[in-house]
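Q: I have 178 residues here and want to know how they pack in 3D. Can you give me a structure?
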Amino acid sequence: MISVFETFYIDTLKPEDALSLSSLMIRNGKRFQEYLPKTLAANLSESASKDYIQKKLSEFENKVEFTFAIKDKDTHNVAGLVILKNIDWVKKQGEFAYCLGRKFSGKGWMSQSMESLKEYAFLNLGLNRLQILIHKTNISSINVAKRAGFSWSETLENEYVSGKSTLDMELYELAHER
């Protein structure tokens, strides 16, 4: 386990998480479709989630991408994900993406998770700069980023492809002060 809190914990994904991960994605499909379409599409059945988890475990082991599960302490079901991706080991930089099921929103779980995982990225992985790309309408995500100490840096025009259109995204950054 990476971190343990009063009502949830952060851990790596495990093969036995496939059913709860798939259930989370299906139950929150509309919520995740806009900004996490690939993650959603890769988890629309238990067998698809098993494949996704195996891929994520391999990426974790090879330090390509780090996918963390936020799990409910009572049920041990996956409540959300935090993904550290687009890692540039030369620049010592990575980008966070995250999602949380509607049922678990508003409890501070994502803010606490980001606080813990930014420290993990800085201290355990040796990264110096972290980024989050957020659409300006995603106020919840912006608030999570700000609570974790990230600051708005710039608007990236046509940064994200959503269906047939492109969206401008807001770049939030945090530098590690050693």
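Q: Anything worth noting?
A: Residues 46-61 form the longest helix (16 residues). The helical segments are 18-27, 29-33, 37-41, 46-61, 109-124, 139-147.
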